[in-house]
DNA sequence: CCGCCTTTGAAGCCA
DNA sequence: TGGCTTCAAAGGCGG
């Protein structure tokens, strides 16, 4: 095991890690989490909405704050915020997220939970547990207080967010624990899995919508400890059941750590039924076929299944039979995307991933380093977990699995311009907006991942940005305004320095998330993405 | 129906 | 060691 420090606490090196974010000095970005959160949203919105305008003015104002001045629902907006704040506060007080976000990462390895990484398991995690993540607090048996907080939120959300809630919400953080191994002996799913309902869309059985059940999984510290808390795992959203950890199930090398809220959230989202090795027949206890088995996601990689027999509708290829397709661990940005996608979608009516991803990319850059650091950290942990679970696995294994070749010429070459063209289309204006984000500069420099600090090079992102952002983003360099003083590569700062605050539990991070959430909900943007040149 | 589009990051491969 | 390629998620769209 590469890096598990024995100390469960901060193991994973959180301490030693360094994050290379732009620069410490940049306050602009960090302003305050709240602000940033708002800013983010606003950014996006504004960008989406008034792209045209902002180009000129945006440069400076953005940094500080660009918010739409007039918002129709400003009131609601405010309320929402208050709501969240209040809720958060309570939660915090309640000790909800007391543990650091990455408390040691208890690597909870749940033996049989479906592994997100397995192709079969491909249910989109996101779909499953988003809510949970969002309101992890709620529902906690242990803390009554929490519930209070929760109620407002969800309801709140519900008002405005029409769409979303279901599928896409997955808390990004969740991913970690999900790795499961086929190797692990399958545990039996907890008996208490909640009754399932058929998903309207998919028809796949799913547990009642969070709202119906208690979407929130138990996070209370104490409760958390009980890994088994059924609910936590159960949140399947789209037909995915979350199995609770089988009693005997834990077998991984690491001692099972107590689950803390954050963990639980992590776990929940990624636990997909698949991971849990479904009973031989792949039926849920209820007897309903495991959704995961059918999951659409599979389309990408039809081949491997953990247990071919069970799930794959299509007989697994013989070749792959043995080897389930193990997916790559998600990187920080992917984790972020998973979480935020739903929000963005809710906000704007956009559904196209390409467009949404552009927005997300922008937002990613505008995240404060703390926020990004969290994702980097999570990603790092995921990788670790992944490596532990699949020691022999290599990214190379997946090479060639996808048929698609993708455009060879990425950025520049843009052969006939097709590639770029699209970019433009999706976010024409946004691009403009984008720059702001970059101007925030936050991560342009691309923070090396925290871990990166450890190992990585400084700026992977840099490369990307260059290549990948045809659009406009010339951003990296920063700002026209020059505000971004931040040199492109800033020296990495010790992760530790970030640590305290970043990781702190209730923290900003969560707040930010919540607030974002609230915002989005309150203001749906309808963005017109395709400008149509 | 499959692959592309889009994003960032990680990892692999090749020179 | 650096640059390029592939894959990870995701959902609409086009061929």
From TrEMBL:
<dbReference type="GO" id="GO:0048699">
    <property type="term" value="P:generation of neurons"/>
</dbReference>
<feature type="region of interest" description="Disordered">
    <location>
        <begin position="298"/>
        <end position="325"/>
    </location>
</feature>
<dbReference type="GO" id="GO:0008284">
    <property type="term" value="P:positive regulation of cell population proliferation"/>
</dbReference>
<dbReference type="GO" id="GO:0000981">
    <property type="term" value="F:DNA-binding transcription factor activity, RNA polymerase II-specific"/>
</dbReference>
<feature type="region of interest" description="Disordered">
    <location>
        <begin position="389"/>
        <end position="510"/>
    </location>
</feature>
<dbReference type="Pfam" id="PF08347">
    <property type="entry name" value="CTNNB1_binding"/>
</dbReference>
<dbReference type="InterPro" id="IPR027397">
    <property type="entry name" value="Catenin-bd_sf"/>
</dbReference>
<keyword id="KW-0238">DNA-binding</keyword>
<feature type="region of interest" description="Disordered">
    <location>
        <begin position="1"/>
        <end position="79"/>
    </location>
</feature>
<dbReference type="GO" id="GO:1990907">
    <property type="term" value="C:beta-catenin-TCF complex"/>
</dbReference>
<feature type="compositionally biased region" description="Polar residues">
    <location>
        <begin position="466"/>
        <end position="488"/>
    </location>
</feature>
<comment type="similarity">
    <text>Belongs to the TCF/LEF family.</text>
</comment>
<feature type="DNA-binding region" description="HMG box">
    <location>
        <begin position="326"/>
        <end position="394"/>
    </location>
</feature>
<dbReference type="Pfam" id="PF00505">
    <property type="entry name" value="HMG_box"/>
</dbReference>
<dbReference type="GO" id="GO:0010456">
    <property type="term" value="P:cell proliferation in dorsal spinal cord"/>
</dbReference>
<dbReference type="GO" id="GO:0000785">
    <property type="term" value="C:chromatin"/>
</dbReference>
<feature type="compositionally biased region" description="Gly residues">
    <location>
        <begin position="1"/>
        <end position="11"/>
    </location>
</feature>
<dbReference type="GO" id="GO:0060847">
    <property type="term" value="P:endothelial cell fate specification"/>
</dbReference>
<dbReference type="GO" id="GO:0007507">
    <property type="term" value="P:heart development"/>
</dbReference>
<feature type="domain" description="HMG box">
    <location>
        <begin position="326"/>
        <end position="394"/>
    </location>
</feature>
<feature type="compositionally biased region" description="Basic and acidic residues">
    <location>
        <begin position="63"/>
        <end position="79"/>
    </location>
</feature>
<keyword id="KW-0010">Activator</keyword>
<dbReference type="GO" id="GO:0000978">
    <property type="term" value="F:RNA polymerase II cis-regulatory region sequence-specific DNA binding"/>
</dbReference>
<dbReference type="GO" id="GO:0030901">
    <property type="term" value="P:midbrain development"/>
</dbReference>
<feature type="compositionally biased region" description="Basic and acidic residues">
    <location>
        <begin position="19"/>
        <end position="45"/>
    </location>
</feature>
<dbReference type="GO" id="GO:0060070">
    <property type="term" value="P:canonical Wnt signaling pathway"/>
</dbReference>
<protein>
    <submittedName>
        <fullName>Transcription factor 7 like 1</fullName>
    </submittedName>
</protein>
<keyword id="KW-0539">Nucleus</keyword>
<feature type="compositionally biased region" description="Basic and acidic residues">
    <location>
        <begin position="409"/>
        <end position="419"/>
    </location>
</feature>
<keyword id="KW-0879">Wnt signaling pathway</keyword>
<dbReference type="InterPro" id="IPR013558">
    <property type="entry name" value="CTNNB1-bd_N"/>
</dbReference>
<dbReference type="GO" id="GO:0021903">
    <property type="term" value="P:rostrocaudal neural tube patterning"/>
</dbReference>
<keyword id="KW-0804">Transcription</keyword>
<keyword id="KW-0805">Transcription regulation</keyword>
<keyword id="KW-0678">Repressor</keyword>
<feature type="compositionally biased region" description="Low complexity">
    <location>
        <begin position="46"/>
        <end position="61"/>
    </location>
</feature>
<dbReference type="InterPro" id="IPR024940">
    <property type="entry name" value="TCF/LEF"/>
</dbReference>
<dbReference type="InterPro" id="IPR036910">
    <property type="entry name" value="HMG_box_dom_sf"/>
</dbReference>
<dbReference type="InterPro" id="IPR009071">
    <property type="entry name" value="HMG_box_dom"/>
</dbReference>
<feature type="compositionally biased region" description="Low complexity">
    <location>
        <begin position="446"/>
        <end position="465"/>
    </location>
</feature>
């Amino acid at each position: 095991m590469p890096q598990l420090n024995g100390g469960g606490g901060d193991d994973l090196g959180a301490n030693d890690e360094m994050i290379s974010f732009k620069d410490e000095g940049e306050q602009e970005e960090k302003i305050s989490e709240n602000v940033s959160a708002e800013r983010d949203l606003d950014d996006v919105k504004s960008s989406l909405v008034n792209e045209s305008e902002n180009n000129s003015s945006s440069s400076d104002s953005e940094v500080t704050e660009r918010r739409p001045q007039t918002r129709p629902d400003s009131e609601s907006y405010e309320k929402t915020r208050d709501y969240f704040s209040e809720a958060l506060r309570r939660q915090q007080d309640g000790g909800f997220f007391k543990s650091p976000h990455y408390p040691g990462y208890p690597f909870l390895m749940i033996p049989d939970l479906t592994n997100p990484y397995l192709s079969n398991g491909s249910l989109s995690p996101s779909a499953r547990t988003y809510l949970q993540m969002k309101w992890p607090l709620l529902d906690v048996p242990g803390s009554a207080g929490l519930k209070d907080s929760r109620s407002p939120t969800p309801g709140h959300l519900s008002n405005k967010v029409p769409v979303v809630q279901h599928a896409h919400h997955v808390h990004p953080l969740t991913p970690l624990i999900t790795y499961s191994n086929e190797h692990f002996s399958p545990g039996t799913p907890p008996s208490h899995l909640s009754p399932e309902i058929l998903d309207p869309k998919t028809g796949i059985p799913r547990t009642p919508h969070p709202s119906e059940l208690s979407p929130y999984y138990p996070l209370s510290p104490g409760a958390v400890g009980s890994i088994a808390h059924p609910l936590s795992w159960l949140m399947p959203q789209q037909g995915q059941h979350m199995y609770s950890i089988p009693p005997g199930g834990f077998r991984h090398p690491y001692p099972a750590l107590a689950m803390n809220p954050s963990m639980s959230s992590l776990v929940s989202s990624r636990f997909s039924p698949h991971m849990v090795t479904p009973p031989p027949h792949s039926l849920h206890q209820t007897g309903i076929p495991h959704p995961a088995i059918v999951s659409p996601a599979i389309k990408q990689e039809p081949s491997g299944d953990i247990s071919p027999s069970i799930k794959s509708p299509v007989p697994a290829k013989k070749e792959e039979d043995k080897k389930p397709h193990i997916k790559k661990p998600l990187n920080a940005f992917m984790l972020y995307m998973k979480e935020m996608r739903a929000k963005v979608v809710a906000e704007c009516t956009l559904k196209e991933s390409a467009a949404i991803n552009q927005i997300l990319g922008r937002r990613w850059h505008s995240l404060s380093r703390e926020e990004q650091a969290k994702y980097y950290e999570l990603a790092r942990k995921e990788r670790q977990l992944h490596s532990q679970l699949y020691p022999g696995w290599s990214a190379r294994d997946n090479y060639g699995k996808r048929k698609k070749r993708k455009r060879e010429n990425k950025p520049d070459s843009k052969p006939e311009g097709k590639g770029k063209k699209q970019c433009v289309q999706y976010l024409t204006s946004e691009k403009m907006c984008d720059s702001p984000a970059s101007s925030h500069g936050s991560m342009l420099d691309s923070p090396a991942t925290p871990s990166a600090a450890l190992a990585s090079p400084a700026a992977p992102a840099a490369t990307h940005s260059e290549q990948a952002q045809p659009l406009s983003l010339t951003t990296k360099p920063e700002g026209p305004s020059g505000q971004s003083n931040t040199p492109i590569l800033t020296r990495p700062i010790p992760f530790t320095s970030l640590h305290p605050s970043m990781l702190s539990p209730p923290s900003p991070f969560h707040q930010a998330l919540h607030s974002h959430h609230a915002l989005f909900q309150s203001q749906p943007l309808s963005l017109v993405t395709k400008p149509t040149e």
